[in-house]
């Protein structure tokens, strides 16, 4: 497996309204495998992306990892959102990643 990004995002935790991410489960992309899972606050992921770190969503299916989409920071009316698309919707959206409580 070639390296996809600096970090893979495997799970997401949203707020009660499901409009903002609280934190995500990320794993460092080591090239041939992923490192240990760690929790990262939304603000930390935004800051890391703005500093040039790369993130991609990753799905686990039948014991194999599948690359999803690149995670971007979108700014709308002074607010920053984590998205895998370029929609101008004022909400975070990382696709259909599994959620945790």
Overall helicity = under 10%
Low-pLDDT stretches are none
So what's the overall shape?
A: globular
Q: What's the count of strands?
A: 7
Summed up, the helix count is 1
* Strand order of the biggest β-sheet: 3-2-1-4-5
**Can you write the helix and strand succession as a string?**
EEEHEEEE
Please render the helix and strand layout as text:
Blueprint lengths: L6 E8 L6 E8 L9 E4 H9 L4 E7 L2 E7 L1 E5 L2 E5 L18
Parallel strand pairs: 1-4
Antiparallel strand pairs: 1-2, 2-3, 4-5, 6-7
Can you characterise this structure?
It is a single chain. The strands form two sheets. A five-stranded mixed sheet has the order 3-2-1-4-5, with helices on one face. The chain has a two-stranded antiparallel ribbon with strand order 6-7. Helix content is 9%, strand content 44%. It has 101 residues and is mainly beta. The protein has a domain at 7-69.
Task: From the structure above, extract its key features.
two-stranded antiparallel ribbon, mainly beta, 101 residues, 5-stranded mixed sheet
Quick description:
Helix content is 9%, strand content 44%. The chain has one helix at residues 42-50; strands spanning 7-14, 21-28, 38-41, 55-61, 64-70, 72-76, 79-83. The longest helix has 9 residues, at 42-50.
